[in-house]
Amino acid sequence: MTETLTETPTTVTPELLDAIGDAFNSNDINAVMPYFAQDAVFDHGAGPDAHGVRFEGYAALEKVFGTLFQSVENVHWKTLDARIAGNKAYCEYLRTARLKDGTVQEYQSVDIFTFEDGLIVYKDTYSKNRSS
Q1: Would you state the pLDDT for residue 15?
Q2: Is residue 95 a contact partner of residue 107, using CB atoms and an 8 Å limit?
Q3: Alpha-carbon gap, residue 71 to 53, rounded angstroms
Q4: What are the residues whose beta carbons fall under 8 Å from the beta carbon of 86, sequence distance 6 or more?
Q5: Most buried of the four, 40, 55, 63, 78, by CB within 10 Å?
Q6: Is 9's pLDDT higher than 50?
Q7: By mean pLDDT, which of 7-16, 44-53, 58-67, 123-132 is the weakest?
Q8: For 43-71, what is the mean pLDDT?
Q9: What string of DSSP letters covers the chain?
Q10: CB neighbours (10 Å) of residue 124?
Q11: Whole-angstrom Cα distance, residue 72 to residue 89?
């Protein structure tokens, strides 16, 4: 259900977004990291700063995403909607994770990806904060 909102030629395509989603859903860090630039930045949805916690550089992103995959039995992002505008993609997800203790987490999130030369240079995540 990915829709292109701009007629401007871009390296960002619905197929690229699907491939990135498939890589994350494989829970395999080696499938995920080829989509990121060496100097990429990831702003996590939570943290003490206005932007959350910031991870800078390929090694930092590889560590944070790899740690996520190791800490869960499985994590899956179901794409609810995705839009492309120039070198940016706005993707809405339903994120479901089964933790190793059997606990299931489920919440909606949004990723804003910024691309250069077909690679993600900035990933900004926003998510619902579920409470009981």
Answers
A1: 94
A2: yes
A3: 18
A4: 6, 8, 10, 12
A5: 40
A6: no
A7: 7-16
A8: 90
A9: -EEE---S--S--HHHHHHHHHHHHTT-HHHHGGGEEEEEEEE-S-SSBTTB-EEESHHHHHHHHHHHHHHEEEEEEEEEEEEEETTEEEEEEEEEEEETTS-EEEEEEEEEEEEETTEEEEEEEEE-----
A10: 19
A11: 27
Quote the tokens at residue 91.
Answer: 């993707």
Please name the residue that has the structure tokens 């995403």. Answer: 65
Give the confidence band of 132 by pLDDT, cuts at 50, 70, 90.
low
Structure tokens of 10?
Answer: 């871009």
Q: Which residue has the tokens 């829709």?
A: 3
Q: The tokens of 15 are what?
A: 């197929």
Q: How far apart are the first and last CA of the chain?
A: 32
